[in-house]
Structure formats: C-alpha cells, structure tokens
Amino acid sequence: MAPCHTLANDKQYHLFAIFVRPRESTAIDQAHQYYRAYASKINRYILLKTNDPELSADLTHESFARLFTLLQQKESVEKPLAYLYTVANHLVIDHLRSHATSRTDRGTCPSSACTPALARPSPIRKPASTRPMTPTVSASS
Q1: What's this model's pTM, rounded to 2 decimal places?
Q2: How many structural domains is the chain composed of?
Q3: Domain membership flag for residue 2
Q4: Of 4, 44, 63, 81, which is most buried with the most CB atoms under 10 A?
Q5: Within 13 Å, how many C-alpha atoms sit on residue 15's CB side?
Q6: What domain range is 68 assigned to?
Q7: What is the DSSP letter of 110?
Q8: How far apart are CA 141 and CA 136, in angstroms?
C-alpha cells in the first residue's frame, strides 16, 4: 500500500503555504468547517424551495462561496448558519425572479424549479359570508 503523502503533495502544500496569506488560510479552514457542519442543512432548505436537486447543489455552492468571500474580508462571522440561510433564500428568490421573466418571454420555464413555486395559487380565502357588514347601532336611552 503506497502512502498517500508524497513529495508532490509536499511541494503543493508548501507552494500553497507560501502564496496564501495567513488570513486566507484561516478563512479556508473556517469555510471548510462550516461546509462540513451546514452544507446538508442548506442544501435541504434550498431543495424544499426549488424541488430541483441540481439547482439546489448549485445554489448551496454559491452560498458557501459568498460565505468564504465574507470570511476573507472579516475575521469571523457571528452567526454563520443564519448568514447561510439568508444568502440561500436570496439566491432562490433571485433565481425564481430571473426565470419568471424568461418564462414569460419564451413561454416556458427552462428549469422545473420555478414552476412549482410560481404556479401555486394564492392562499387568500374568501370569507364564508359574502353579505356586506353593516354597522350595528346600539339603542341608548
């Protein structure tokens, strides 16, 4: 059995360590920890909203890419899971909006993700009584 740690890997690591600033290295480590901890939750959240596994994977990746960009600018993020859910929600909304306009232009939506969310009827219910409400006047002596 050959060892997985070879000279080529050592050279790549040293090149990486030389050219990557310490802050970026810390950001990479933090992003990797957050990805292991939260990727499945974010992916599931997006999947419930889009009903498209490929789109869900893409938007999950984009959410973590934005978290990584933020980690490069700041030392840390106070609530990374809340940040990821917010970014994921905004990405889903942006996707649905962009595909809603393209759907009206072309007549069909290229992604199956935008159809279920946009085709749902409004949850507003009509009142049980359609009779107009009349004010009641109380009799005073």
Answers
A1: 0.57
A2: 1
A3: no
A4: 63
A5: 6
A6: 22-111
A7: S
A8: 16
Q: Answer yes or no: are the C-beta atoms of 70 and 25 closer than 8 Å.
A: no
**H/E run at residue 48:** helix 22-50
d(Cα 138, Cα 132) in Å, to the nearest integer?
A: 19
* CATH number of the domain within which 39 lies: 1.10.1740
In a domain, 6, yes or no: no
- Taken as a whole, the chain contains a residue count of 141
Residues 6+ positions from 62 with CB-CB distance below 8 Å: 87, 91
Instruction: Please state the separation of Cα 53 from the chain's center in Å.
Output: 13
- pLDDT one-digit tens code per residue, 99-114: 887 665 555 555 555 5
Indicate whether 13 belongs to any domain.
no
Tokens found for residue 123: 């949850």
Q: Record the tokens describing residue 38, joined without a space.
A: 């939260």
Question: What's the pLDDT tens digit per position in 41-93?
Answer: 999 999 999 999 999 999 999 999 999 999 888 878 899 999 999 999 999 99
Nearest to 42 by CA among 74, 71, 8, 66: 66
* In a domain? residue 47: yes
Query: Residue 60: how many CB atoms within 10 A of its CB?
Result: 24
Q: What is the pLDDT of residue 29?
A: 86
